[in-house]
Amino acid sequence: VYVPASSANDWKEFLAKPDRQWKAGYSAHALAHAWQEADGFPESVRRVLAKSGRFTSIELLLAIPEHQVALPGGRTPSQSDLWVLARTDSGLVSMAVEGKVAEPFGPTVQDWLSDASSGKRKRLKFIRSLLELEGMEIGPIRYQLLHRTASAVLEAPRFHAVQSMMMVHSFSAQDEGFDDYRDFVSLFGAAAELNEVTNAGAVSGTELFFAWVRGSE
Fold it and tell me: Who contacts 134 (Cβ-Cβ below 8 Å, separation ≥6)?
């Protein structure tokens, strides 16, 4: 059961640490205002999607803040800042949206595994398999980007979506974190660009895309 939001402030209650995360200039606050106040997609997002050629007629059907997706290896889910179900000419798309200002993407995989439990190893093995990254060097990659992409891919078949996307909606004028994002996308043999949609090809039965969108604070 989901309750509709009537204002951006309604998003606050879903944050893990609302008193720390809900402040002007922070990603959760910026993302909530950008999406809640838009008619469908925010204009900065719509422009990037449209110029890709694949998403010119995309329609937002459903948007859920702080959407949780269960992953093996523990009780902590992957919690996207925003999950979107959208319709395109070629079918539905499952989108995990990550808001970004100046905060980092969190630890690298090698740091996240520094006190590796059996649950962590199980989860990483699952994500590697899901994203078809077995045998690839992912130690320097930000773990958050891996499990956020996994959540988009996992939700695709649940909603009969044929496409999935992990989008970073950045509100940083300096594009902080883009290098980490670019390194991650390169694992799929693709080259990431600012304000561009990148096609990573077929992954676990869905056509996977990445996008970095520069919004305004």
Answer: 128
